[in-house]
Amino acid sequence: MVVSDTNRQLVIIGGAEDKQGDCTILREFVRRSGGINARIVVMTVATELPREVGEDYMRIFERLGVEDVRIVDTVEREDANTSTYLEAIDKATGVFFTGGNQARITSVLRETELDRLLHKRLAEGLVIGGTSAGAAMMPDMMIVEGDSETNPRIEIVEMEPGMAFLPGVVIDQHFAQRGRIGRLLSAVAQQPVNLGFGIDENTAIVVTNNQIEVVGEGAITVLDVSGITHTNLGQILKDEDLALCGVKLHILPHGYRFDLASRQPIFENNVSTTNQTDAQAQDMPLVESA
Amino acid sequence: MVVSDTNRQLVIIGGAEDKQGDCTILREFVRRSGGINARIVVMTVATELPREVGEDYMRIFERLGVEDVRIVDTVEREDANTSTYLEAIDKATGVFFTGGNQARITSVLRETELDRLLHKRLAEGLVIGGTSAGAAMMPDMMIVEGDSETNPRIEIVEMEPGMAFLPGVVIDQHFAQRGRIGRLLSAVAQQPVNLGFGIDENTAIVVTNNQIEVVGEGAITVLDVSGITHTNLGQILKDEDLALCGVKLHILPHGYRFDLASRQPIFENNVSTTNQTDAQAQDMPLVESA
């Protein structure tokens, strides 16, 4: 897994985040972006309803006290070289990608001036957030589409290059709600990466450098295929069933943390790294998450 | 895990098995029950439509060449002590439980003469099959009902004693199709067992003593919590989110085998028992399943 040592901060949301109540996740995005002094850009490139969706988020961020909120709607690739848009990104402290179609994000933005600027500013401390399609596009290879509620097969998932804000992992969203473990396993098994993150609705992973913290109502499902003991991946045809043995799985709800470099949940006394085989769940020494 | 050393043969189906085409799974049940010389009893206790459902299975088994097929419909507990029913079970080579409501199976049959006779005959070589509710009731503790498409929480799954034909595990059905990994994780974490089996639709596990073989269209998802490194199970309230770290997961499609005693997939040269950490799926030495 390639994880560069940047100052990156990402807020990656599994879709359907609370926009009416406490807004726990969007509040976290605003706080990290500078609170009431944040300068936020809402990127509506993924959605077919840029005005409605953009103004929704603008209202929410304003309700949370942010005065400087701008909508940037890049429709064509040439829009992504527009100087006013580039200036907005250059001054922003937080950039938020709405839901919609992740393939639209990459087809309009990848390898444009705006793309290069986002990566430069991310390394300098810009917070990038995204929900649903805006979450899917975060890795270097993203799930474009795929079947839900099926066992893993090769053909059920289609991958394309993503925006590479969080390289080295695969991300899926609306995870428990749409029964997507089969497609995430299929994606991770087929990519040269070890980690898959399935993010539930109204749940986010907040990335700070190489550390992840879970925020929100549901959980994240971490799939680690680094230690698998068997797969039939090289032998089966496209429509046949995938076998995978020895996948490591973690379920991490609100407040739990995970280290991308060591691929381990983080606990204050590192109990997670000890090897307590054959111990019953009920008999384990329990440790408070940090 | 308690696994007795019997001659048990079970065919445990995740629901919605093919009844029109090749009937791969029902064919396997018939073959193990003695083929065209089988004497099959169809137990309709779980369903509210015993006549329709019973006659459906009777027609299928007859189409596969079995001449001796009987329907036993126990409605009340006293029916389970009826001598004609007991004689039918005593002579049967295969007993098949239809779908419906698993709580009806246990409330009518548990600790009756018929229950005792089924266990005695199972140890003597009787094949017991079941689909959907007829699969859920197989363990000593069964999932009665639960929420699908959610992250694991304590309250989402309700458990009751099952028929204990396959003690020491938890079974869930319609698994991928209904997004049930959250509820199966919740069930396994709360029970004093280490193994959960999620069986997809039109897919079965065929149990012979302590060995399992997968048959059918989908896959089974094996969840092994014996080596978990952390859980918050003892600390959270009923409606809070469960954390589970270090669950081992196997996806096993048609033809794959699993050993209940060692909790390992079975390969001819036992590659599954070696510890090849940090190897990529794509770079693994691949082994044909037996």
Automatic annotation (TrEMBL), chains A, B:
The regions listed as transmembrane in this protein's record are none
Keyword check for Hydrolase, yes or no: yes
Q: Annotated Gene Ontology MF terms?
A: peptidyl-dipeptidase activity; serine-type peptidase activity
Q: Name one Pfam family in it.
A: Peptidase_S51
GO annotation (BP), single: proteolysis
The record, for InterPro entries, names:
Class_I_gatase-like, Peptidase_S51, Peptidase_S51_cyanophycinase
Listed NCBIfam families: cyanophycinase
What is this protein called in UniProt? Answer: Cyanophycinase
